[in-house]
Amino acid sequence: MNPPLAVHRAPWLLPISQPPIADGGLVISNGKLLAVGRFRDIVRSHPGVAVIDHPDVLFLPGLINAHTHLELSHLAHLAKLPAPASFTEWIILLIAERAKAAGDPEAEGKRIATAARAVLAAQQQHGVVAIADISNTGLCSSLGNEFKGRLLCFSEYLRLRADAVNAALLRLHAEPDSNYCTGHAPYSTHVDLLRGLKARANRLGHVFPIHIAESSAEIELLRSGGGELRDFLEHRGLWDDTLPLGEGGAVNYLHRHGLLDRRTLCIHCVHIVGEEIDLLAKFGAKVCLCPGSNAYLGVDSAPVELLLRRGILPALGTDSLASNPELSIWREMRILAALHPALSPANLLAMATLGGANALGLADRLGTLEPSKDAAVLAIELRAPARTAGEVQEQLIQQGGGCRLHRL
Ligand SMILES: [Zn+2]
């Protein structure tokens, strides 16, 4: 039997789809939001319905972590080291760590899964209700039942040489339609394979996440075919001179090769210029920023104000523990706030919720508190009283992750 209807009342309600509401109320029915608004309006439209008071909390939609790699959680020691000298150095370190022969593969597998489970549990504790994970090993798919939210698991294809494309496409064609598949980046997945992956994602209506413009070395490679990434690829026997070069950076690369549309999720977007932001806006492409990872790797910070000015609301992602010492969307908001003082707390909260829902194609269910959406509502206790909507949002971001939180 369904629980009886109740009006939940809190001193503040942050719907994201509209400004904060003082003395707010919402009604939940069968796991969905039935009504959201001012308490006095809600009780008037729901006469006789019991009221449950939550006197010390605010209501917020669940957070969304739009980019991570759970299978790297056991490499947390990497991001505790001093930052590597360059992005390419970090890739070399990461590959070496992943390749370290484990004495017992079964025990190693268990160790990796245990670390990933701990990250998932922490995400839940921090109020995350949807995660997009990218995996080379399929670990994510085995963890789905352990996360009380939406865990989107993307299998990542990495093949840069032209002579490896056909075998990869054959493997792709054998994937069940229910599997999400994607490419890693323009410098690590051959353009023909990226095209095959994107065509499949479009046919199935899947989101297509791809790392782009994370480092200046990537842009140098895409423009000139040179630089430290070229040296790295050559050294590993991955360079075969088939990477199509051109002006205009990584977004332009996606555009030139038909990879840019409203289901493309461009992860990082640190080294992009104005005309590329215009392209992102024109094609309705989505953007996910990973400020914590970018800060650790010292690759600079994405032009978030320019994105917002062009009407693009980015999502936020933590990336993995191998490049970010702490996986918390609250901390991602604080890092952005520190680096970009012009951003408002309302902008940051919208990125962490609605931006993520848009990016993952989940905006019909998550991202805001609106009737008919999922009742993925966080009830968060602020440590100090806040008098204005601005104070509430500011405090929430500064304390988030450290304050008591439960799901309604
Ligand atoms: Zn990543």
TrEMBL record:
<dbReference type="InterPro" id="IPR011059">
    <property type="entry name" value="Metal-dep_hydrolase_composite"/>
</dbReference>
<dbReference type="GO" id="GO:0016810">
    <property type="term" value="F:hydrolase activity, acting on carbon-nitrogen (but not peptide) bonds"/>
</dbReference>
<keyword id="KW-0378">Hydrolase</keyword>
<dbReference type="Pfam" id="PF01979">
    <property type="entry name" value="Amidohydro_1"/>
</dbReference>
<dbReference type="InterPro" id="IPR032466">
    <property type="entry name" value="Metal_Hydrolase"/>
</dbReference>
<protein>
    <submittedName>
        <fullName>Cytosine/adenosine deaminase</fullName>
    </submittedName>
</protein>
<dbReference type="InterPro" id="IPR050287">
    <property type="entry name" value="MTA/SAH_deaminase"/>
</dbReference>
<feature type="domain" description="Amidohydrolase-related">
    <location>
        <begin position="60"/>
        <end position="382"/>
    </location>
</feature>
<dbReference type="InterPro" id="IPR006680">
    <property type="entry name" value="Amidohydro-rel"/>
</dbReference>
